[in-house]
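Example 3.2
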Amino acid sequence: MGKNDFLTPKAIANRIKAKGLQKLRWYCQMCQKQCRDENGFKCHCMSESHQRQMQIFGQNPDRILSGYSEEFERSFLDLMKRSHRFSRVAATVVYNEYINDRHHVHMNSTEWATLTEFVKYLGRTGKCKVEETPKGWFITYIDRDSETIFKEKMKNKRIKLDMVEEEKQEKEIQKQIEKAAQLKTPLESEENEKRLVNKELNLENGVKIGFSLGGGNVAKGDKGESSNTARLVFEEEENEKKKKKVNEKKENSGRKNALEELMREEEKAKERINRKDYWLCEGIVVKVMSKALAEKGYYKQKGVLRKVIDRYVGEIEMLESKHVLRVDQEELETVIPQIGGLVRIVNGAYRGSNARLLGVDTEKFCAKVQIEKGVYDGRVLKAIEYEDICKVAQ
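Structure, written as tokens:
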């Protein structure tokens, strides 16, 4: 076996060294050549090929340096976007992953001398969120993609709408409390008047009341006085009867208002509990609204939701092609059937209930449904939003 044979220890060691990474200072970026030691790097620098590359570099050094810097930055951020898109990670960890590629752009060919300078540059330009800790520099990727920005805007808009709705509900509750207090005060005053009248009419034991039914001997003046007193007695009785009827009506109306208020409060409590930021459920028909899937012909196509993954992702079987896709709920839309069709309430107070579609209000973007089966069987919801109901797959 010769000295430089394939299976000699030296040949094996040379192959292992060739596969792995070598020292950064012995790498020539212009020639893209890695030298194993200082002597090899010195010999390479004296070679004709290296001298030609250095002449090219000398003609326009700033342009070449900026080109390498841009390439290094782009590939570094691409790695961040792929591997650590939503996580806070140490800059050294990302750099070690980046240099695993043997033919990467080395940092000694860029405008940044150290990794710390590069990390500070990312923080200044707003491409990453940078934090300095005792354990080193930590970076978080800031996603500037148009789709993610649009999703964030929609999420913030929904949060603001929820806040506005909560304020409206609180104002309505306050108004109802004020109305109930106003209704309560006249009822109390009437009850006090009744008590006073009853006290005046209650006579002591042993007292007798005499009525004189005037005969022919009574004078005309006496007749007028007696007739006036009789009229007053009967008028008082009629007024008392009328007051009783009015009080009964007010009491009934007050009871109805109290029941309505209780029902509203229960519905608001249910709404707060059952209103979630996810609405996917199995067995409903949805529409795909992802423009990224337009090339494959799935844009604005309907499918049946067969499986829900982690609450926010749905596995959809397309109605026409029978293909199965996994789509985020942000890129899906509910489907409204024809009047009389069966729907499922996917969000809100009556979440999970099946209902029959009775009508649609296109101006207010809401629908009228009647719940079928369950605890709330037969209850009619006059105004439920399109987003809260979806067609049930037959």
